[in-house]
Amino acid sequence: MRGSSRRRYTNVGYIPTDDALARRGALERGHGGTNGEMAQQVRRFAIMLMALSMLSVALVACQATAITPPGSGGGPGSTLTFSTSAANAVSPTPTFPLFTIGAWPSNYSPGNPDTITIYVICRVQDPTMQSPAVPPNPGVSVTIFVGGAINQTLTATTGADGIATAQLAFSDPDPGVPVVVQVSASYRNQTYKNQTFFTPGATFTATPTGGPSTTPGTTPGTTPSTGP
After folding, report:
1. Residue-number span of the structural domain to which 178 is assigned
2. CATH code at position 107
3. CB neighbours of 139 closer than 8 A, spacing ≥ 6?
């Protein structure tokens, strides 16, 4: 056996030979080369990601500059213009109706059975609200529907004062229950509605009840005494 390949031991321990040192150096160089290649691949991958990100941003920017706002003409420096309606063109309050209708009964608490009159008033309103309402032309047809158990429909026409009247005779099987009356009229091909109510049999007469009574000459709670 050659002396160069044999292990040498001294009083301080094992001392590797030249061949062992050479083999260890080769192994270390091999591992170092593998780690270096991996680090280089990681750097290449990072550079590729950065390049793809920059390319994506560039494509998005190109598409954004290619969009032309409507009506801008596509010229350089074009901007979007937002327009609003004129301040005086929009009213903060709703428009008052051109035609109004109202109703009321001659008696809100009639007897049962009873007969009452239903009044219906119609008025034409000034859209500018600068002048008072006026009656419509005479002859406006009015429909009166009495609901509840009465369930009757009446018709009437307005006079020169814009008021229509209708007589209602009824016998309500449910006294004390409010009855809703719905009225409607058409003006310039548009129907306008309103309602009122009355309560049949709502009036009751109180009946007096009997109280403690006394006998003349006596005091309540005592017995009349007799003489000696």
Report:
1. 99-198
2. 2.60.40.1930
3. 157, 158
pLDDT in tens, 67-103: 555 555 555 555 666 666 665 666 666 778 899 999 9
Q: Which of 198, 166, 169, 165 is closest to 181 using CA atoms?
A: 198
Conformational region of residue 221, where left means phi above 0, alpha means psi within -120 to 50, and beta covers everything else? left
Q: By CB neighbour count within 10 A (0-12 exposed, 13-18 middle, 19+ buried), where does 28 fall?
A: exposed
Domain boundary among 44, 63, 82: 63
Q: Are 200 and 179 in contact (CB under 8 A)?
A: yes
Count up the domains in the chain and report the number. 2
pLDDT digits (tens, 9 = 90+) for 131-166: 999 999 999 999 999 999 999 999 999 999 999 999
- Summarised one tens digit per residue, pLDDT across range 211-228 is 555 555 544 554 555 554
126 shares its domain with 192: yes
CA dihedral sign, ordered 57, 61, 63, 64: positive
CA 144 – CA 168 distance, rounded (Å): 10
Structural domain includes residue 219: no
